[in-house]
Design brief:
Helix content: 10-25%
Enzyme class: isomerase
CATH topology of the largest domain: Chitinase A, domain 3
Catalytic activity: [protein]-peptidylproline (omega=180) = [protein]-peptidylproline (omega=0)
InterPro entries: EF-hand-dom_pair, EF_Hand_1_Ca_BS, EF_hand_dom, FKBP-like_isomerase, PPIase_dom_sf, PPIase_FKBP_dom
Order of helices and strands: EEEHEHEEEEEEEEHEEEEEEHEEEHHEHH
Number of helices: 8
Protein name: peptidylprolyl isomerase
Domain PPIase FKBP-type: 62-150, 146-190, 214-302, 327-414
Strand content: 25-35%
Radius of gyration: 40 Å
Oligomer: single chain
Distance between the termini: 103 Å
Length: 510
């Protein structure tokens, strides 16, 4: 019934087992809310009186649907019913093959939903009607039930001979006048116009950046067919899947579905076959024309151009005039983890703060940058992309291409020394340095005299040693540098300031 021409009992011939049905949650729509008693209707009135609990897909223009209906006038008199003929209507909607009111009334419907439709004359059979059946200018009332299977549903279908192979049968396989019994499992359904469907399962708070095309992403996933059959999982390999997104390295549906995600987000991506592996499928686990469902967990992502992200967590209450800079010797506490919260390292495990000289390549580049410009007592959160951390190969305990999250607290800061210096004077050095250093005035300075003299200068605030190193070792290295002939003592000819040595080297090069 409800073909665009006059109604009758001749239905379009049905394809055998038309199981491409439509499922999705319809958003309730009521069109033209006036009643016939209150004046003419402008549009179809829709009353949804049974809506299924799950409905992942709505009827759209061009969909092939099957439904039952009862058609009555305003006084309740029935003019047609598919139930009376025990035959479903099976037809493509939205393309003019039904009266306009029915085409509109089926839009957005769910499988197994029931609706009551009121169709005004201009959307039905108009001022002409149908001779002997529907009078002119008749308002039509329909009770409609959209039928179909859900993915994962099992049915036993018994088909009588006249709807199967009839009196001829089929070769030697199906005898004449055979009733056929099918046990059917509906694996999936789709429409060639379907796009990727996204469902956020868990969204972490504080998402400040979403993935875009060109980002390199690490994620875990479970991949299944629409009936729940698992075909692959990164969890089973205990290794994330790592790839650039939006650049064609993965199937188009996944390429689309991963964009816009946050770190730590869990989302479900439903991909129709034309955006997955198409009609042929792949391997022995993904059949042809399969709809794929991926439950993904985004571990992290970055762009090769990303800098270190720095967020100040707290600052000391007192004024801070001196902040860290390259060359400074610092002590700091830190906690290091992956972006999903997996703990990697912590200075608190070693009973004391970490020590480093900034700009001396003693720590990864991103951490070095993130520790600069800090006040003593300040706390920061640093997000370090892999190209400023341990790169594609990772390190012991750190996966390849991992984005690292640091929480750091600066404990102390000391001005560093210029490159190549072990000791610097705060003022000009003594005019007669060797005479001052030669404590017993015997014309030579042994290690004991040298060490005593340097320590006295440090204690008196006249100079300082390179920070972050054992003072005895530093002083020993200084002595070895000055003992040119390595005879265990320094003479006046051997003693030279490093600044003088640097000048002599420049003169020689010129």
């Amino acid at each position: 019934m409800f073909l665009a021409g006059p109604p009758g009992h001749t239905l379009l011939r049905l394809p055998r087992l038309p199981l491409l049905l439509l499922l999705v949650q319809a958003v309730g729509r009521g069109l033209g809310r006036a009643s016939p008693a209150g004046g003419p209707l402008d549009d179809v009135v829709i009353e949804r009186y049974h809506i299924p609990m799950a409905c992942p897909r709505e009827v759209q223009i061009g969909d092939y649907v099957r439904y039952h209906y009862n058609g009555t006038f305003e006084d309740g008199k029935k003019f047609d019913s598919s139930y009376d003929r025990s035959a479903l209507v099976a037809i493509v909607v939205g393309v003019g093959r039904l009266i306009t009111g029915m085409d509109r009334g089926l839009m957005g419907m769910c499988v197994n939903e029931r609706r009551r439709l009121i169709v005004p004359p201009h959307l039905g059979y108009g001022s002409i009607g149908v001779a002997g059946l529907i009078p002119p200018d008749a308002t039509l009332y329909f009770d409609v039930g959209l039928l179909g299977m859900c993915p994962g549903e099992r049915r036993k279908i018994i088909i009588p001979p006249f709807l199967a192979y009839g009196e001829k049968g089929y070769g030697t396989v199906i005898p004449p006048q055979a009733s056929l019994v099918f046990h059917v499992l509906l694996v999936d359904v789709h429409n060639p116009k379907d796009t990727v469907q996204l469902q956020t399962l868990e969204l972490p708070p504080g998402c400040v950046r979403r993935a875009v095309a060109g980002d390199f992403m690490r994620y875990h996933y479970n991949g299944s067919l629409m009936d729940g059959t698992l075909f692959d999982s990164s969890h089973s390999r205990n290794h994330t899947y790592n790839t650039y997104i939006g650049q064609g390295y993965i199937i188009p549906g996944m390429d689309q579905g991963l964009q816009g995600a946050c770190m730590g987000e869990r989302r479900r991506i439903t991909i129709p076959p034309h955006l997955a592996y198409g009609e042929n499928g792949t391997g022995d686990k993904i059949p042809g024309s399969a709809v794929l469902i991926f439950d993904v967990y985004i571990i992290d992502f970055h762009n090769p151009a990303d800098p270190v992200e720095i967020k100040t967590l707290s600052r000391p209450s007192e004024a801070c005039n001196d902040t860290t800079k390259p060359g400074d010797f610092i002590r700091y506490h830190y906690n290091c983890s992956l972006m999903n919260g997996t703990r990697l390292f912590s200075s608190h495990d070693h009973g004391g703060p970490q020590e480093a000289t900034l700009g001396a390549n003693k720590v990864i580049e991103g951490l070095d940058k993130g520790l600069q410009g800090m006040c003593v007592g300040e706390r920061r959160q640093l997000v370090v992309p892999p190209h400023l951390a341990h790169g594609e190969n990772g390190a012991r305990g750190v996966p390849g291409s991992a984005v690292l999250l640091f929480e750091v607290e600066l404990v102390s800061r000391e001005d560093g020394l210029p490159t190549g210096y072990l000791f610097v004077w705060h003022e000009d050095p003594p005019a007669n340095l060797f005479e001052d250093m030669d404590l017993n005035k015997n014309g030579e300075v042994p290690p004991e005299e040298f060490s005593t003299y340097i320590k006295t200068q440090v204690d008196d605030g006249k100079g300082r040693l390179m920070p972050g190193q054992d003072p005895e070792k530093t002083i020993g290295d200084m002595f070895q540098n000055q003992d040119r002939n390595q005879d265990g003592k320094i003479t006046a000819e051997e003693l030279k300031l490093k600044s003088d040595e640097d000048q002599e080297r420049i003169h020689e090069e010129l």
